[in-house]
TrEMBL record:
PROSITE patterns: PROKAR_NTER_METHYL
Subcellular location: Cell outer membrane
InterPro entries referenced in this protein's UniProt entry, alphabetically: N_methyl_site
Organism lineage string: Bacteria, Thermotogati, Deinococcota, Deinococci, Deinococcales
Keywords, comma-separated and alphabetical: Cell outer membrane, Membrane
GO cellular component: cell outer membrane
UniProt protein name: Prepilin-type N-terminal cleavage/methylation domain-containing protein
Length: 145
């Protein structure tokens, strides 16, 4: 029986299946990693967008000196700030922190003058905790309007 038979032997078939399995495992691992990175990037972009939106509200509304003194934001709800850590520090002329607090939502007495000591600069820190973390430190000068 020296005839040459066509087809695959069992050993050749097992080797081919092993190579195919290794290829599938490596491709699957790479895809899983890519999907994780994509998800993390999406979360980070969403959180960064939220932080920038609040920072833009602060910067725009605090041009009004009364809102600046009251540390308040009009039109921003607690839902907008949900999951954000917000810290406001009032700085003196020497840039040392003189007082610390948070934001006031809504400006019920924005038309009234606030009897507060003049603070030329306020540092607003916005942080989205967790992984990945998004944060922004914004220094806002007192408006003159």
């Amino acid at each position: 029986m020296n005839r040459r038979q066509s087809g695959l032997t069992l050993v050749e078939l097992l080797i081919a299946l092993t190579l195919l399995a290794l290829l599938v495992v490596s491709v699957t691992g790479t895809l899983v990693l890519a999907f994780r990175m994509n998800r993390a990037s999406g979360i980070q972009i969403r959180d960064t967008s939220r932080v920038l939106a609040v920072a833009e509200q602060v910067r725009g509304q605090w041009r009004d000196a009364r809102r600046y003194d009251a540390q308040c934001l009009q039109g921003v709800t607690a839902q907008n700030l949900e999951g954000l850590e917000v810290k406001v520090e009032a700085l003196g002329w020497d840039l040392a922190v003189k007082e610390s607090g948070g934001l006031v939502l809504g400006c019920p007495g924005a038309d009234e003058k606030v009897d507060a000591e003049f603070r030329p600069l306020k540092r607003v820190t916005l942080v989205v905790p967790g992984e990945p973390q998004a944060s922004l430190v914004l220094e806002v000068a007192r408006g003159t309007e």
